[in-house]
Amino acid sequence: MRQEWSPEELLASWTLVDGDWDLVANKTGATRLGFSLLLKFFELEGRFPDLLEEVPQPAVEYVAGLVKVPAAEFAKYDLTSRSATNHRKQIREALKFRPATRADEEKLIAWLAAEVCPVELVEDRLREALLVECRARTIEPPGRIDRIVTAAQTRAEKRFCARTSSAWATSGWPGCWSWWPRTTRTAPPCWPCSSETRARSAWNPC
Fold it and tell me: pTM of the entire structure?
């Protein structure tokens, strides 16, 4: 999450509305502030922060003013505590989200490999696409985001090589090498290794 927020943006995105106050209820101190910030963070990001530092300081100060708790109290909020675990459960239920299951992870890998990896090579953008998809499916992103991205990339590469190897076997040309991302200096695993075949390629490594 970005760290710079204007007063107008804070008002629009971090203000507690009627339903939010019902959730905050009679919580006090660091618990009251921490819950409020988790709630608004999740509404904006579709996920919970892994570290307190992910929550923008302007938002901490703004929400602290709303709930009448000193902003410094947020440093006492323990994201690994039982209270924080209960808070996340309460927020998920209120926003109709649920934790991702192993079955969800497999579906996300399949979706990412089929729909995004063929047109996007930048890992940060793959992660962003995955987070957006989790939000669309109303599930909390799994903690193994990097593993899911890597698994999807591997699956997409295998599918690509199987398809192009089949085309090679049928027509003799083109092979994976002619379509392999031009940012790499190494041949794909399905590239035929004979010097004669390499000589036929118009590939020129950078």
Answer: 0.72
Please state, in angstroms and rounded to a whole number, the distance separating the CA atoms of residues 147 and 151: 6
Q: Any idea where the domains of the chain sit in the sequence?
A: 7-96, 102-172
pLDDT at 182: 45
Per-residue pLDDT of 66-75, as tens digits, reads 999 999 999 9
99 beta partners:
140
Half-sphere exposure of 101 (CA within 13 A, CB side): 3
Q: How is residue 140 annotated by DSSP?
A: E
Per-residue pLDDT averaged across 121-132, rounded? 92
Task: Map 158-202 to HEC letters.
Answer: HHHHHHHHHHHHHHCCCCHHHCCCCCCCCCCCCCCCCHHHHHHCC
CB-CB contact of 46 with 136 (8 Å):
no
**Alpha carbon separation from 130 to 39, 100, 152, 160 (Å, rounded):** 21, 12, 11, 20
Return d(Cα 13, Cα 11) in angstroms, integer: 6
